[in-house]
Amino acid sequence: SPGWNDDAFGICIMGDFRTAPPNEKALNAVRSWIDCGIKHGHVKEDYYIITHRQSQRPGYT
């Protein structure tokens, strides 16, 4: 995203989540990645998450 690429990481979980959220395996992988980043000093402990949702029809997100 413009203005964020020098200070942010992008994580993508692909799937159709209109009727069910991502499964625990996917969410645990994201948590593990963030925890590893914190442990090694690449992610701040007070991180925050900004979400983005794609749509089949742009404008209806």
Automatic annotation (TrEMBL):
Domain N-acetylmuramoyl-L-alanine amidase, residue spans: 3-56
One biological process term in Gene Ontology: peptidoglycan catabolic process
Superkingdom to which the source organism belongs: Eukaryota
Signal peptide (UniProt feature, chain positions): none
GO MF term set: N-acetylmuramoyl-L-alanine amidase activity
InterPro entries: Amidase/PGRP_sf, Amidase_domain, PGRP
Any Pfam family hit: Amidase_2
PANTHER family reported for this sequence: PEPTIDOGLYCAN RECOGNITION PROTEIN, PEPTIDOGLYCAN-RECOGNITION PROTEIN LC-RELATED
Name this polypeptide is given: N-acetylmuramoyl-L-alanine amidase domain-containing protein
Gene source species: Rotaria magnacalcarata
The organism's taxonomic lineage, starting at the top: Eukaryota, Metazoa, Spiralia, Gnathifera, Rotifera
